[in-house]
Amino acid sequence: MLTAALLAAALTLTCQGDLTQGGVAVCTTAPGAELNVDGVATRADGQGYAVIGFDRDAPASSHIVARDGVQETAIDLPITPRVWDIQRIDGLPQQTVTPTDPAVQARIARDTKAKTAALTSRATGEGFLERWAWPVARGRISGAFGNARVLNGVSGRPHYGVDIADPIGTRVRAPASGVVTFARTGLHYEGGLIFIDHGQGLTSMYLHLSKIAVQEGQQVNAGAYLGDVGATGRATGPHVCWRLKWRGRNLDPSLLVDESLAAAQ
Ligand SMILES: [Zn+2]
Q1: pLDDT digit string (tens) for 126-139?
Q2: From the centroid of its chain, how far is CA 259?
Q3: Could you tell me the distance, in angstroms and rounded to a whole number, from the CA of residue 127 to the centre of ligand 1?
Q4: What is the 238 CA–ligand 1 centroid distance (Å)?
Q5: pLDDT digits (tens, 9 = 90+) for 38-84
Q6: What CATH code would you report for 86-256?
Q7: Ion ligand 1, residues whose Cβ is below 5 A away
Q8: Where are the domains of the chain?
Q9: pLDDT, tens only, 128-174
Q10: Distance between Cα 10 and ligand 1 center (Å)
Q11: Domain 4-78, what fold?
């Protein structure tokens, strides 16, 4: 007599997307299957979709294991490396580069705690399956994702966003649907800052905003008005720094953009 396990179809696992440093991919497997992505745990949703991402500094291969409680299957994805430019930025206020003021350090610690809490969000939506638009009418890209940075002459962390220069007051819109998980002003580095969880913790971020038009917990659709471009926090001019994270990995949001979609204004 055949057991249920033998009768069950083999557990499938396929992943498609940008298999490159900073890229996002969507894996398809059994609904509810557990995934292990290079040691990072996630779970497919009720349709069998799991969004994953590859860090700016991801190694040349990603090992992904799916388990449905009975079976296990694994794949290795080749991850294409990228070449990063070096960007020098001078004239930043020194307290925003190497803060020594205890009050500033305390504020940064408070900001970090709040941001870290927001990044534990695991929204149930599937905004990661949508075609993404630019969040602003496309201005000049003033800082590419992944640049190695020299701030006031000192090597700093790489740039984990895409900087889009636009005038103060330019409307910033959601590139895809999701839930607002962070919406606050006055952060030391980021100024006015919004996070959107597009499902399973894939979180896009909008920095240096002059105005915030959404609230934490709010569901937004693609094109929803989020706030206005500004120069708040550590910024040398008006721009929005657009970032994307998944499980602590820093991703390149511009890779998700479908250039045939115009940014709504
Ligand atoms: Zn930036």
Answers
A1: 999 999 999 998 78
A2: 18
A3: 23
A4: 11
A5: 999 999 999 999 999 999 999 999 999 999 989 999 999 999 999 99
A6: 2.70.70.10
A7: 161, 163, 241
A8: 4-78, 86-256
A9: 999 999 999 878 899 899 999 898 888 888 999 999 999 999 999 99
A10: 44
A11: Immunoglobulin-like (2.60.40)
Q: What backbone phi and psi angles, to 5 degrees, belong to 244?
A: -150, 135
- Which single residue is written with the structure tokens 């020594």? 100
Q: How far is CA 90 from CA 1, 153, 156, in A?
A: 74, 7, 12
The rounded distance, in Å, linking the Cα atoms of 215 and 218 is 6
Q: What is the DSSP string of 224-251?
A: -EEEE-B--SS-SSSEEEEEEEETTEEE
Question: HSE (CB half, 13 Å, CA atoms) of 203?
Answer: 27
Any idea which residue has 């534990």 for tokens? 120
Ligand 1 centroid from CA 158, angstroms: 10
Tell me, in angstroms, the distance from the centre of ligand 1 to residue 242's CA.
7
